[in-house]
């Protein structure tokens, strides 16, 4: 009986508009490299904008799947993607084309929805690690944003000085 209820819940989640939207987001962001293209916007704006697409995965994990460990793992992937994308001198932009955070998030969601014991065990085991990494990633992202803004200001200041000579 319990297995029948799980299968019905799985079918309901797979048929939901949010699940289909997540599949589309994953396809656009990772398969068609929209994440990397958006990441090219200056001052980290593109990376922050791309991270907003992860809100759909987090909402689904919290509201539909109701799993805190899954939510933490998704947030961890998304923050790591932002931090990597903020690496200066276009290194982060190149990494954005290869780091598939949306695909990773979708695989985690699928694993939970389909009852993949390996995915569930892995996410549950890493829940505390994910929480600690989230705090670390937020600190790193803030530091990198300060660095990017400072570096950009320093470059513009020197360009202005160069032209005012």
Report what the structure shows:
This protein has 165 residues and is mostly helical. It has one domain. It contains ten helices and no strands. Helix 5 runs parallel beside helix 8 and helix 6 runs parallel beside helix 10. It is elongated and about 80 Å long. It starts with a helix and ends with a helix. The mean pLDDT is 88.
Question: What brief labels describe this structure?
Answer:
10 helices, elongated, 165 residues, 84% helix, membrane, mainly alpha
Strand and helix layout:
Layout: H1 2-15, H2 17-31, H3 34-38, H4 45-51, H5 54-65, H6 68-85, H7 91-98, H8 101-113, H9 117-125, H10 127-163
Helix pairs in contact: 2-8, 4-6, 5-6, 5-8, 6-7, 6-8, 6-10
Q: How would you summarize what this structure contains?
A:
It is built from ten helices and no strands. With 165 residues, it is mostly helical.
Show unreliable segments: none
Strand content: under 5%
Structural class: mainly alpha
Give the CA-based shape.
elongated
Sketch the major β-sheet. none
Mean pLDDT: 88
Distance between the ends: 81 Å
Number of strands: 0
Which series of helices and strands comes N to C? HHHHHHHHHH
Please state the CA-atom Rg, rounded to the nearest Å. 19 Å
**Count of discrete domains:** 1
The helicity comes to: over 70%
């Amino acid at each position: 009986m319990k297995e029948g209820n799980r299968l019905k819940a799985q079918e309901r989640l797979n048929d939901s508009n949010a699940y289909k939207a997540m599949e589309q987001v994953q396809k656009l962001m990772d398969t068609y490299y929209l994440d990397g293209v958006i990441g090219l916007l200056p001052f980290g704006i593109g990376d922050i904008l791309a991270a907003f697409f992860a809100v759909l995965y987090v909402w689904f994990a919290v509201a539909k799947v109701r799993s805190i460990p899954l939510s933490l793992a998704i947030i961890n992937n998304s923050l790591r993607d932002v931090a990597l994308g903020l690496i200066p001198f276009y290194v982060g932009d190149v990494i954005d084309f290869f780091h598939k955070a949306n695909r990773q998030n979708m695989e985690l969601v699928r694993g939970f929805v389909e009852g993949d014991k390996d995915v569930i065990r892995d996410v549950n085991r890493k829940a505390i690690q994910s929480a600690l990494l989230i705090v670390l990633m937020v600190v790193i992202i803030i530091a990198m944003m300060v660095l990017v803004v400072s570096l950009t200001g320093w470059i513009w200041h020197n360009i202005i000085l160069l032209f005012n000579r």
